[in-house]
Amino acid sequence: MTQANARPVIAVLGAGKIGEALLSGLLHGGRQADELLFTERSASRSAQLTETYGIASAGVPAAAKKADVLVVAVKPQDIEPLLDELAPAVRGDTLIVSLCAGLPTALFERRLPAGTPVVRVMPNTPMLVGEAMSAISPGKHASGAHLATVEELLAVVGKVVRVPESQQDAVTALSGSGPAYFFFLVEAMIDAGILLGLPRAVAEKLIIQSAVGAATMLAETGEHPVILREAVTSPAGTTIMAIRELENHGVRAALLAAIEAARDRSRELGRVHEAD
Fold it and tell me: Annotated binding site for NADP(+), which residues?
């Protein structure tokens, strides 16, 4: 810590949508602007974020020297130049929190000072509305206290679970990419409403609220989705006819194959950065 008994200074390296959402969430969760920093390559965006949130920007070396927690939120393809800047500046006791899809903790441990604690996180875009699902995994040098720190940080923007790092590629495919699957389904259902003669605005309102309501029922009742689906499915009714068509068209199998493909791509991203 920068001061005895002080809260850690947190720097977000890469203030894109996810990085900005985390900064905003931390402020709303009670952090002070002077406890936060961010790095951003675009000067205009950097100025905009400082004006909006009152948080100072810094270069990567300066942020590394000042912060106790570094949240790495750059695209995976941008990680190598960032690590080149970070390695000479970071302290060995600084907690590294990686939000980079597919990148293993071993990459950071290999490139940063020996013993650097690293926690890998797979968040998702509902962080933008405070409803993220984030899965966290410790690296070799991360302790239970480090995991608790990361849980506290991420709790302000959604829910958090701990998983072994070996499961992170599956998490990436399921919840990291998961919002896109729901958006895809909602898009198709809205199109169906238009095909059936409804105005787009009406179809959107019907489907979006149905999605919100269904998700709330899943979260609040604790019932298995099969039970909730069967409660809507009357014998020889409209719903069972629709379900039959979904099964005939292989929707369930397509979802399984899609999520497996996303898992495989996540593995590929990680292999690019494996040690020789």
Answer: 73-76
Per domain, the residue ranges of the chain are 10-168, 178-269
Per the annotation, binding residues are: 73-76
Residue 274 pLDDT grade (very low, low, confident, very high; cuts 50, 70, 90): low
CATH code, residues 178-269: 1.10.3730.10
The 10s digit of each residue's pLDDT in 9-54 is 999 999 999 999 999 999 998 999 999 999 999 999 999 999 999 9
- Tell me how far apart the alpha carbons of residues 263 and 125 are, in angstroms, rounded to a whole number: 18
pLDDT in tens, 211-231: 999 999 999 999 999 999 999
Residue (of 47, 114, 112, 52) closest to 79 by Cα position: 112
The count of other CB atoms within 10 Å of the CB of residue 257 is 11
CATH superfamily label, 10-168: NAD(P)-binding Rossmann-like Domain (3.40.50.720)
Q: Where are the beta strands (DSSP E) in 30-180?
A: 36-39, 56-57, 69-72, 95-98, 118-122, 132-138, 158-162
